[in-house]
Design a protein that fits this description.
Largest sheet: 6 strands, antiparallel
Oligomer: single chain
Strand content: 15-25%
CATH topology of the largest domain: Immunoglobulin-like
Structural class: alpha+beta
Number of domains: 2
CATH architecture of the largest domain: Sandwich
Shape: elongated
CATH superfamily of the largest domain: Immunoglobulins
Helix content: 25-40%
Order of helices and strands: HHHHEEHEEEEEEHE
Number of strands: 9
C-alpha cells in the first residue's frame, strides 16, 4: 500500500485524493505516509548528524539566543566544522496559508524539502548549481545538520516544497558559506576569478553569491531527487 501512496504523492495528489483512489480512509493513508517518512528520515539523521551530542549543542544555543533577531521568515546556514554545517529556518504560518490557498491543499499535504547547492564560482540563479543534495524533512522540523561538505567549495541552501518528482518550489533561500581548504594544493584555485574581477570592476566576481528573484523551476539532470 505504501508504494502506491508514495507514487501518488510524488504526482502531487492530496491524502484525500489518494484515499479515494485506493478505496481507503484518509486516516490510514496519513498513518502509512508518516510511518514511511519516519523510517526514511532515520538514515538521514545519522548521515547528516542531526542527532545532537553535547559537542554540537553550541550552534543550537546560539540560534536560540539570537532568535529574536530573526522574527521574519528566514533560512540560515552556519559552518560549524570543516565539513559540517548547521541550518535553521522560520517559515511563518502566513506564508503556509498563502501556499495552501493558492494550491487549494492543506500545507501539511506538501513534502517539505531542504536543498543544498554547490554554487562555487557561479552567479547562482536557482537552477545552475554544480551539484544538489536534497533532504526530505520530517514534520515540524526547524533545523538540520549536514556533513560531508567538500573543501574549498561554496554552498547555499533553499527550503521549499515538492510538487512532483521533478518540480520543486523554493520558499526561502539562505546565505552562502565557503568551506575552507583542506590542502595547500587547493590554494590559488580562485586566482583567475579574482584577476578577472580586478581587471573588470564593472561586474561582480563570479564567486560572490547572487540571489535572483525566486521562480518556479524544474529539476534538471544531475540534480539529486
Amino acid at each position: 500500500m505504501i508504494e502506491e501512496i508514495v507514487k501518488l504523492r510524488r504526482k502531487g495528489l492530496s491524502f484525500r485524493k489518494i484515499a479515494a483512489r485506493l478505496n481507503t480512509t484518509v486516516g490510514k493513508v496519513q498513518y502509512q505516509w508518516k510511518k514511511y517518512m519516519k523510517k526514511k528520515s532515520e538514515p538521514l539523521r545519522h548521515d547528516t548528524g542531526s542527532r545532537i551530542n553535547k559537542k554540537e549543542e553550541k550552534p543550537l544555543s546560539i540560534a536560540n539566543k539570537y532568535k529574536h533577531v530573526h522574527q521574519e521568515d528566514h533560512l540560515c546556514i552556519w559552518l560549524i566544522s570543516p565539513n559540517k554545517l548547521y541550518s535553521f529556518w522560520r517559515l511563518s504560518e502566513e506564508q503556509k496559508k498563502l501556499i495552501s490557498h493558492y494550491y487549494q491543499r492543506p500545507f501539511a499535504d506538501f513534502q517539505l524539502v531542504l536543498r543544498l547547492y554547490d554554487v562555487t564560482c557561479i552567479l547562482f540563479n536557482g537552477s545552475n548549481a554544480h551539484d544538489v543534495f536534497e533532504i526530505f524533512l520530517p514534520d515540524n522540523k526547524k533545523s538540520w545538520f549536514i556533513k560531508g561538505l567538500k573543501p574549498n567549495r561554496c554552498y547555499c541552501a533553499e527550503l521549499g516544497i515538492k510538487l512532483s518528482d521533478h518540480h520543486f518550489l523554493p520558499l526561502l533561500r539562505s546565505n552562502a558559506i565557503h568551506v575552507p581548504r583542506s590542502d595547500v594544493e587547493q590554494a590559488g584555485e580562485l586566482a583567475k576569478e579574482l584577476e578577472w574581477f580586478q581587471s573588470s570592476r564593472r561586474n561582480a566576481p563570479k564567486w560572490v553569491e547572487h540571489v535572483s528573484t525566486y521562480s518556479f523551476y524544474e529539476t534538471k539532470e544531475g540534480m539529486v531527487d
